[in-house]
Amino acid sequence: MVQAIVTDIEGTTSSLSFVKEVLFPYSARELPGFVRAHGQRPEVRQLLDEARQVAGGALDDGQLVATLLRWIEEDRKLGPLKGLQGLLWEAGYRQGDFQGHVYEDVPRRLREWKERGLRLYVYSSGSVHAQKLLFGHTRFGDLTPLFSGYFDTGVGGKREVASYAAIVKELGLPAAQVLFLSDVREELDAAAAAGLRTACLLRGEGPTVDPGPHPEARSFDDVHP
Ligand SMILES: CSCCC(=O)C(=O)COP(=O)(O)O
Ligand SMILES: [Mg+2]
């Protein structure tokens, strides 16, 4: 019945602590130097201009960097910030400063599901570039060949019903044939409201989540598509 699985990253395939204690601090540390060194590159300039617009003012680069650092601290899921973080993390992955964390059940089950003919997708607030970097640099090797596609906030926010409707439209499948995996109740509620099947990952890290009506899974081993 399920033809495709769409998975969240942080708290679902990967630990909260990897994102909050490795990726976010790395991006905060590297951002000022990166803007000084690469701020004139067209794709960087464009993201900085978009961030300036979101900030709503004519900020100079120093003020803008301070705003971006505050957004990182506040874990704001803003497109231009996520785009810049993807570019910052690229150097970290390539230099081997860190690897993308995935729980051990993740590659095992993703491979099994793909072999069974299921199509696999990612939907994260992190940019598509950042998603590919994370799955491309894990201790289990490059997992990107397992995925048929990636979605970020370009399709809409993860707590908005319309985002899941847009994803299933893009997949060309009835919503009821798509399973969404996440650790965040509001994301699962939005996906269910759009007609997707859901499962709530309870990895035992971070605050306790009330899964509400969504089937619970302690790992991908508990997910039975
Ligand atoms: C793509 S890895 C970095 C994840 C990230 O930046 C983030 O904000 C986590 O968002 P998610 O939607 O995966 O919870
Ligand atoms: Mg999550």
Description:
This protein has 225 residues and is α/β, with parallel strands linked by helices. It has 2 domains: 4-15 and 102-222, HAD superfamily/HAD-like (Rossmann fold); 19-94, Transcription Termination Factor Rho, Rna-binding Domain, Chain A, Domain 1 (Orthogonal Bundle), CATH 1.10.720. Helices cover 47% and strands 11% of the residues. The protein has 8 helices and 6 strands. The protein has a 6-stranded parallel beta sheet, sandwiched between helices. α8 links the parallel β4 and β5 (197-201). The chain is globular, with a radius of gyration of 18 Å. Bound molecules: the ligand CSCCC(=O)C(=O)COP(=O)(O)O and magnesium ion (MG). Magnesium ion is lined by residues 8, 10-12, 182-184. Ligand L4RZE5RM is lined by residues 8-10, 19, 23, 77, 82, 85, 124-126, 130-131, 134, 158.
How do the helices and strands line up, and which of them pair or pack?
Layout: E1 4-7, H1 16-38, H2 42-55, H3 61-73, H4 79-94, H5 105-115, E2 119-123, H6 128-136, E3 149-151, H7 161-171, E4 178-182, H8 185-193, E5 197-201, E6 216-217
Parallel strand pairs: 1-2, 1-4, 2-3, 4-5, 5-6
Outline of the structure:
The protein is an alpha/beta fold and 225 residues long. The protein has 8 helices and 6 strands; from the N terminus they run βαααααβαβαβαββ. The protein has helices spanning 16-38, 42-55, 61-73, 79-94, 105-115, 128-136, 161-171, 185-193; strands at residues 4-7, 119-123, 149-151, 178-182, 197-201, 216-217.
